[in-house]
Amino acid sequence: MAMDPTSVDPKRIDYPLDTFSLGNEDVRLINQAIGAVEQKCFQRFGLDLPIPEPPNGRAFPVWDWYGLWDEQATRSYGYSSPPMITGGEPFADAVPPEWAPVLGGEQKTFNGLEIPEGGCQGEALRALGGRPNVGADVEVLQREAVNRARQHDAVKPLIKDWAKCMKQGGWDFSDPKDPFSDRPDPKSVGGRLEMSPAELDMALHDINCKKSTGLLRAWVAADVANQQLLVEENAEALREMTDLRAATLNKANDIVAGR
Fold first, then answer.
1. How much is the pTM?
2. What is the mean pLDDT of residues 97-124?
């Protein structure tokens, strides 16, 4: 795979495991279905809440796969995660505290009515087929591939070159994951670390070092190769994951359509 080290963009790579993972619209659909079931569940107990809007982001699990590499996101978020649309509980922040037992099922009854097993969350899970975290197994394989890739003979020496490049800029790190836990001048604002000018300077130098040394190019190429191997090694499991995803999305479609 020929890749220019100064232009390779992981967001534009066709990764072999992408075929089996949940896409952005899939996650939105599942979240909408969960919200619809839970909304009806709450209404039985006398609480009528609008379904919360999903977060303003995108499914972007690869933002830190190769350490930091996306200059556009980095200029806004530094070493913090960009906003992501993730599966999960849409009503977590919208339900009044006294109604939390209805959401999670921590008690048997509420307002004289029996709470379903697992609360409204459990009811939504069963409506979608009873399997939590659809897509999580594929993410495990994706992480395994990128971790295998960093041990590739073509990648390991380039990590050392990256470290030398960082040191030339005044930062002493031996591994691309290290800067995430050693951010300069961190300040917490609203529970989130705010990026300082020093952090942005370090982060942009980090990305430039990955490109100039060829580390990003080599790491992405090794990752793609390892994903292909994992697809072959886990063919039967991936077929089962594909069937589960299809069944879950069919149920979610029916729920959202009111069928």
1. 0.81
2. 94
